[in-house]
Amino acid sequence: MSEVEGETLLVSNSQQDGPHLKWSAYAPKYDAICAYNPAYQENLERLKDYLRTWELSEDARIADLGAGTGNFICAMSDVLPHASYTHIDFDPGMNTVARSKYDQLKSIEVNVIQEYLQRVSIPDESFDLIVCVNVLYAVAPQGLFLSRARRWLKPEGRFFIIDFGRKVKIFDWGWYFLKSTIRKHSFGHFVRVLVDNYEFVRQNKNAQHDFEMGYFWEHSTEEFRELLTSTGFSVEELYTCYRGYCDLAICR
Ligand SMILES: C[S@@+](CC[C@H](N)C(=O)[O-])C[C@H]1O[C@@H](n2cnc3c(N)ncnc32)[C@H](O)[C@@H]1O
Question: Does domain 31-165+217-251 fall into CATH 3.40.50.720?
Fold first, then answer.
């Protein structure tokens, strides 16, 4: 538990009887699986397309909340190489993978902050853009976290959020990975990827449990909109993506 602004926050992953998903066990396998997931690659491209249309300055200040292995910051740096990036994530395993990618890119400036989003201390009006992809469901209480994130945005700033809000259907995803992998490779290749990355499957089963137990927030698109609006965001665009499992919103 952590005290922030007079409210007791549930820092969920530190609870003994809390979520079963272990992000650090996920970390070494995360990118291997993302590479075989066209829906994940579509989200990266989607954000890059938005970046090309938004008039952000070359030296914009951009935060990625729950930045994981750094894929979204690396993608954004293709479009805005001189922006100043802040990566926030509590998991050391995820951050280690991200740091090694940022080091390879050399030219980008990234400040990696290893902390819970519920208790990280960020001055108000720090960022021109905040990105938050597939993290909100795990950051309880969601409303308080979103209110804090909104204050970190500059008055004209944008919030790009994607959130996984539906039940995890392991067989549906397995079938999807099988089809998309054998389209480019072979069935044998799929089996090898599956065996090498079985920990990823185990952690997804844990995520399925965490949604069922209510540790993770399952939501409809309308519930997602209501939460964003009630925490002070003005929603400019809202639609589902990621094979219908995620909601995407662009907010001011
Ligand atoms: C599904 S991954 C998404 C990573 C990245 N945004 C992406 O889409 O590739 C969720 C990330 O959120 C981080 N995370 C979960 N709960 C968190 C919390 N309370 N505070 C900070 N980071 C958290 C995890 O460590 C993990 O890296």
Answer: no
